[in-house]
Amino acid sequence: MNKDKLSRRTFIRNTSLAAAGTVAAAVARKAGAVDIDMDKVQRVVKKGRINQSVSKWCFGKWSLDQLCAVSAKLGLKAIDLLGPSAFATVKKHGLACSMISTHGLSKGINRKEQHAQCLAKIRDAIDAAAENGYPNVISFPGNRAGMPDDVGIENSVIALKQVAGLAEKKKVNICLEYLNSKVNHKDYMFDNIKWGVEVCKRVGSERVKILYDIYHAQIMEGDIIRTIRDYHQYIGHYHTGGNPGRNEIDETQELYYPAIMRAIAETGFKGYVAHEFVPKRDPLAGLTYAARICDV
């Protein structure tokens, strides 16, 4: 998530017909969408050791169809954080959905009274993932709201054990996301790696993993490469993002992603690394650059 108004929580898909142009260009065009010169999009992913994806919410001026077209041509393999209604568009471009959305992030599985609602959405997402051959569904513990961390761990383990068997049967990962509580998500419970590792250990399922968001982790703890090496067996998915600001992962920010990607590749990771930065400048240039430097 980013501190600006554009975020996964506030991002609204808003489509409209263009006022002019050809019918093909007008149909289902996103309000404010920009034209993309596809002749300028060239494949930059050539090594392919890192399976790259990208989150739709970050590219608000592009339609899903545009993002898929660009991603496929660049050499990315998937789009992140979608629901079943988007799968047909993704498949049309030969891509996958690398992470399926479920319940909200502030009211999650750390409270027993929220288990029924959250688990129902997780089960539906697992079924959709298995039906379409997709690997991951997301989950969140929620905010502390005065709850001690050990109680949150206990309650989250109780919840995840109720769906771990289904995830194992369907061969789908449930990924609990690490977010920062310092800048973007005040009071969020899973804001340090050891909290998530403890949950995974107690659940004891190969299908319950961590979504390690590098942007959030940098804010809270840093030491990214060492953490990846120490805890990679518990990580099922990665997100990128520049810090400060969750902007382009280029020389304007403090994380050096080529080294981070090499560390991920060296662990033998075969899942997805999804770009989740919000471009401040030209989005095509930003995504192209990210795809290139992460192809290690």
Topology of helices and strands:
Elements: H1 23-26, E1 51-55, H2 64-74, E2 78-82, H3 87-92, E3 96-100, H4 115-132, E4 136-139, H5 149-170, E5 173-177, H6 193-203, E6 208-213, H7 214-220, H8 224-231, E7 235-240, H9 257-266, E8 272-275, H10 283-293
Parallel strand pairs: 1-2, 1-8, 2-3, 4-5, 5-6, 6-7, 7-8
Describe this structure in words.
The chain has a single domain (37-293), classed as TIM Barrel (Alpha-Beta Barrel). 36% of the residues lie in helices and 14% in strands. It contains ten helices and eight strands. It has helices at residues 23-26, 64-74, 87-92, 115-132, 149-170, 193-203, 214-220, 224-231, 257-266, 283-293, and strands at 51-55, 78-82, 96-100, 136-139, 173-177, 208-213, 235-240, 272-275. The chain has an eight-stranded parallel sheet with strand order 3-2-1-8-7-6-5-4. α3 (87-92) links the parallel β2 and β3. The radius of gyration is 19 Å and the shape is globular. It starts with 22 loop residues before the first helix and ends with a helix. Residues 1-6 and 8-31 have low confidence and may be disordered.
Notable features of this structure?
296 residues; alpha/beta; TIM Barrel; disordered N terminus
- Helices and strands, in order, run as HEHEHEHEHEHEHHEHEH
Strand content: 5-15%
Number of domains: 1
Distance between the termini: 26 Å
What's the short story on this structure?
With 296 residues, the chain is an alpha/beta fold. It has helices at residues 23-26, 64-74, 87-92, 115-132, 149-170, 193-203, 214-220, 224-231, 257-266, 283-293, and strands at residues 51-55, 78-82, 96-100, 136-139, 173-177, 208-213, 235-240, 272-275.
